[in-house]
Write a structure and sequence with these properties.
Elements (H helix, E strand, L loop, with lengths): L2 H17 L26 E6 L2 E6 L6 E7 L15 E7 H8 L7 E6 L4 E5 L11 E8 L12 E5 L4 E2 L1 H12 L2 E2 L2 E2 L9 E6 L13
Length: 215
């Protein structure tokens, strides 16, 4: 395990220890009480959900695991050729469930995901409710069966469309030209992935973004 990976894991584990409460042995589906797929890792991942003056600390491994496969499309190559990236299998938690359990989806116009390094993306609330080309949105904690403790991108924002391909046109249709990511003047759905998500800001007003010091 390289030094950067160890540092990221230590930071995220420390954040989780600050935010987390004791986990039950059996994880239950939020609001339903049904037994769900429990996480089998000792590494905890936490995010802070912020809605104006209110803030909620969320232990992600309290939520059931969701798995899915997806390939992303990068910026078009010279000559206009498609630029599909390799597909990967992700395992994470439902982003809409996290927001609904803390804030309620009805109050969400936008949600901004902020990484520890300050990288952030803002998405319309409509993508959380489903029915868009984005498919299901998850905060992925592992990829391709790799143990969560050894993956330094977690939590990672991942889109899981039904056809397992998240194209640049899917991105434009779901979030609009202003919310899309671009490489130069070319749209690139790969840029919507946010690595190391630490904060979810509901209806971000454009003020200073939170940092690790705010935890």
């Amino acid at each position: 395990m390289n030094a950067r990976r160890r540092a990221v894991i230590l930071i995220l584990s420390g954040v989780a220890l600050v935010l987390a409460v004791a986990l039950p042995i059996v994880v239950h589906e939020p609001r339903t009480g049904q037994a769900a797929d429990a996480w089998d890792t000792d590494v905890r991942f936490a995010v802070r959900v912020i809605d104006g003056e209110r803030a909620y600390n969320v232990e992600l491994t309290e939520y059931p695991a969701i798995s899915g496969r997806v390939a992303y499309e990068g910026p078009a190559l010279a000559g206009g050729e498609d630029n599909w990236k390799a597909a990967h299998d992700y395992r994470g938690v439902d982003l809409s469930a996290v927001v609904d359990r803390t804030i309620g989806l009805g109050a969400v116009e936008t949600v901004t995901l902020v990484a520890l390094d300050g990288w952030h993306k803002t998405l319309p609330g409509s993508v959380l409710e489903g029915g868009t080309p984005c498919g299901k949105l998850i905060l992925a904690l592992s990829v391709d069966g790799e143990p969560a403790a050894e993956w330094n991108d977690a939590p990672l924002l991942v889109f899981l469309p039904e056809d397992e391909r998240f194209s640049n046109q899917d991105m434009l249709d779901a979030v609009g030209p202003d919310g899309a990511h671009y490489f130069g003047d070319q749209p690139s759905s790969t840029g919507l992935m946010v690595k190391g998500v630490a904060f979810l800001i509901v209806n971000y007003d454009g003020g200073p973004l939170p940092t690790l010091a705010d935890l």
